[in-house]
């Protein structure tokens, strides 16, 4: 999800939103994000808001930080959301992320979707996605969620090469994600995404090509591919600091991105966001398009972020604090902020420019158009699209997307 600041004004205990933010609710796409904070182990590169059983010190299912307490808190937050929004629109999209949602098992995933249906309802044809790891996904789980109405599975593959998976501290073996992807399609899920990470220390160009070959053999119709970012405080960052591995090289990351784009493009996948490729328009992730297009979403769960009508807020991070707040009848929101016009403009440029449809030139001021003229001459924006009133990144521009966006926004 789009990142948000970690500071802001205190959020009201009842979760109430400014009336201006509720105006127009239902006229914009509306999504529900559910954060599942549990993982079996922590991957060395991960700095997400996730917890293992040992992190939480769980002793029983009644523990305030347990999955059972989390699910009860989630039901309460979704009911709170429905009250705060008044007449909430049915969800166009639902996305379970984490963490590892597949650790909930089929029954747990079905219970989460039932809770969303109970509080919001689903629009006909809604996209419903859950993330999963190959080692915690079974045929029984896939059958259960397909029957319950899930339409999309997003698998954390990262690589199909043993030594690369080892550096990332991934638990699954090569071939596992491909096998699960095929089983998901056989179970009746309409779309499958595979996540890849490129630029991992020890990875070669051939390793990446091998992973891409596995993706193409899997039947997946969507790929998300991200250059490795070494986050401070992670196990991987500590190993790099000790000299166990080299820091990823920006030039290597750019070369690997071009390999991804070349291989997927030749196989019929089109990029529609800088880090995302789909085999067809129907296979694009509609939930992410809610974020990139400035829609509304309610993020439920520990540390989840939300945005409705220009107000955004974020929940307390620890599962025990999250469950306790809701059990006491309070909103779990930690803080919030109202987005200023300047902030909204910057975010529109940053997000829309990353997509294949780009940004309307009319959204830019005079200095922004001048910067766009320069970017088009320099091969960072498509000159033909620019002449037709759209700022659309070339492939070289995609490699420098944030810098181009900041120049257009005058930031």
Short overview:
This is Heme chaperone HemW. This protein is α/β, with parallel strands linked by helices.
Q: How many angstroms separate the termini? A: 22 Å
Total strand segments: 15
| Average pLDDT | 96
Could you tell me the strand content as a percent range?
15-25%
Q: Biggest sheet: strands, sense, closure?
A: 9 strands, mixed
Report the oligomer.
single chain
Helical percentage: 40-55%
Q: How much is the radius of gyration in Å?
A: 21 Å
Q: Name the poorly predicted regions.
A: 1-5
Strand order within the widest beta sheet: 8-9-7-6-5-4-3-2-10
SS-based structural class?
alpha/beta
User: Count of helices?
Assistant: 17
Shape: globular
In words, what does this structure look like?
It is found in: Cytoplasm. Keywords: 4Fe-4S, Chaperone, Cytoplasm, Heme, Iron, Iron-sulfur, Metal-binding, S-adenosyl-L-methionine. This is Heme chaperone HemW. It holds the Pfam family Radical_SAM. Belongs to the anaerobic coproporphyrinogen-III oxidase family. HemW subfamily. By secondary structure, the chain is an alpha/beta fold. 41% of the residues lie in helices and 19% in strands. It contains 17 helices and 15 strands. It has a nine-stranded mixed beta sheet, with helices on both faces. Strands 1-13-12-11 form a four-stranded antiparallel beta sheet, with no helix packed on it. Strand 6, helix 8 and strand 7 form a beta-alpha-beta unit. Helix 3 runs parallel beside helix 4 and helix 8 runs parallel beside helix 10. The chain is globular, with a radius of gyration of 21 Å. The chain starts with 8 loop residues before the first strand and ends with a helix.
């Amino acid at each position: 999800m789009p990142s948000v600041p970690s500071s802001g004004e205190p959020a009201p205990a009842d979760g109430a939103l400014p009336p201006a933010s509720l105006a127009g609710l239902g006229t914009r796409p509306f999504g529900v994000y559910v954060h599942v904070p549990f993982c079996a182990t922590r991957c060395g590169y991960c700095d997400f808001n996730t917890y293992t059983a040992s992190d939480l010190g769980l002793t029983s299912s009644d523990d305030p930080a347990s999955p059972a307490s989390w699910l009860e808190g989630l039901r309460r937050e979704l009911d709170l959301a429905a009250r705060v929004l008044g007449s909430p629109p049915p969800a166009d999209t639902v996305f379970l992320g984490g963490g590892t949602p597949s650790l909930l098992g089929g029954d747990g995933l079905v219970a989460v979707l039932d809770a969303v249906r109970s509080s919001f309802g689903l629009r006909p044809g809604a996209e419903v996605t859950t993330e999963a790891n190959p080692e915690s996904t079974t045929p029984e789980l896939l059958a259960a969620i397909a029957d319950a109405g899930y339409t999309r599975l997003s698998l954390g593959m990262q690589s199909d090469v043993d030594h690369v998976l080892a550096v990332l501290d991934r638990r699954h073996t090569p071939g596992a994600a491909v096998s699960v992807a095929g089983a998901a399609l056989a179970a009746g899920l309409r779309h499958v995404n595979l996540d890849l990470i490129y630029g991992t220390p020890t990875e070669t160009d051939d390793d990446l090509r091998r992973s891409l070959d596995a993706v193409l053999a899997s039947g997946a119709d969507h790929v998300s591919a991200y250059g490795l970012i070494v986050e401070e405080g992670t196990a991987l960052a500590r190993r790099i600091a000790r000299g166990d591995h080299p820091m990823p090289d920006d030039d290597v990351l750019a070369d690997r991105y071009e390999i991804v784009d070349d291989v997927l493009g030749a196989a019929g996948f089109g990029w529609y966001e800088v880090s995302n490729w789909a085999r067809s328009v129907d296979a694009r992730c509609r939930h992410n398009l809610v974020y990139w297009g400035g829609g509304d979403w309610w993020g439920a769960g520990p540390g989840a972020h939300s945005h409705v009508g220009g107000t955004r807020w974020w929940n307390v991070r620890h599962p025990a604090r999250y469950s306790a707040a809701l059990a006491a009848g309070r909103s779990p929101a930690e803080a919030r902020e109202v987005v200023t016009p300047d902030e909204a403009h910057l975010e529109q440029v940053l997000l829309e420019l990353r997509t294949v449809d780009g940004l309307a030139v009319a959204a830019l001021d005079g200095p922004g158009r001048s910067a766009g003229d320069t970017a088009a001459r320099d091969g960072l924006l498509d000159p033909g699209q620019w002449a037709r009133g759209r700022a659309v990144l070339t492939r070289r521009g995609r490699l420098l997307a944030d810098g181009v966006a900041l120049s257009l926004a005058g930031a």
